[in-house]
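Reviewers of the previous submission asked for a worked example of the structure-prediction workflow described in the proposal, so we include one complete record here. The input consisted solely of the amino acid sequence. No template or homolog information was supplied to the procedure at any stage.
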Amino acid sequence: MAQRIERDFLGEVRVPESALYGVQTIRATENFPISGLRAHPALIWATGIIKQAAAQAHLGAGELTEELADAISAAAAEVAAGKHNDQFVVDVYQAGAGTSFNMNVNEVIANRANELLGKPRGAYEPVHPNDHVNMAQSTNDVFPTAMRLAALRLWKDLDAAIAATKEAFKEKAREFDGIIKSGRTHLQDAVPIRLGQEFGAYATTIEKCRSRIGAACEALQELGLGGSAIGTGLNASPVYRKNVLEELHRLTGFDLRGAENYIELMQNTDGFVEVSSALRTLALNLLRICGDLRLMGSGPTSGLGEIQLPAVQPGSSIMPGKVNPVMAEMMAMVCFQVIGNDTAIAAACQAGQLELNVMMPVMAHNLLGSMTILTNSLRVMSERCIRGITANEERCRQYAERSLGLVTALSPQLGYHQAALIAKEAVSTGKSIRQLVEEKGLLSSEELERLLSPESLTES
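From that input alone, the workflow returned the following structure tokens.
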């Protein structure tokens, strides 16, 4: 492979001739051969957008010539469009604060900008990665800003996926509204409920989670870009700081604002924790709901069998005809990962010291990863599972009629003690609550019909 020689203050390094990255990127790949995982595409997009906005902000402030600003902007726009994603080769576990990744981006944009100006890669003239692409910036304000923009971008797709999941549950709630079934608490018989009511509750839970995440993401609209190294804004002019926010708004469409306190925002990463925590809450609720779906769909002959989940693939390599609840199982595994990611983010948040939290790369990897896998899993869960669920109405009705929970509706008339004796006798004899009450003449048929009607049992 043809190579070129590049130099930094530590010495010479050989770089592939075809690479857009340079010496500092090579050092990072040699130092951090850790996971083979690379930067999330949304983080690359966000950093490209920041470099593009910065170049135009400097042009407006008279700090870059039009030639250099336009070349940097064009190269950065290509990065944001994903045209050079293969050039971002730094492992996600890297130097603290994301310096290696930021320099990877600076080098790619500098080399591409110079190429657009007719210069060779590796010359860094007239565009230099530090002096021009990174002008008035520090990794310390660029990387967390990129994290915020990337998360805001991913939130759009996640929001749509959550909304679709809610609507899928609402559709099933309407479809199943007339199906009476036994409620269960402690996994034991409880008072009856309609299957549609259960699915309607799932829809409400999903919407609450959506609202929590959206509210948490609003905090990410506050940016510390322009704070440079520690939030004091050294080497960043007030004009640049104002211009770069305007450019970012123009390029992203996001409702962005400068930090209330740039120093505080440099130190504090709790905004990412807040979003991650809201994602964890969604994951916990999805785990619970998927557990319910698997339980209600268990069987088909030896389980509850109240619903059927869509058969999307054979379930066993040894048992012919077996079908498993694979979509709900997949969703559960995604949720476990999101919960683990949240733990890593929380630990990283408290690991900041003094003017900077250097653990941002692992926070970015886990936060953006959680948002991505939740988006993808919810999309397929909605389409390939929830929308295809069918109800076993006869099985639901049988459970409801034989549920010991029915006696609760009769307790005001019979008294708690008498009702408990009826429930005990039902267990020992196998007779239904209705049958025993009728046999003993405790209530008339008309009273039983009124008290045990689906409307009386499931509506307050």
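The first helix runs from residue 23 to 31. We consider this example representative of the routine output the project will generate in years two and three.
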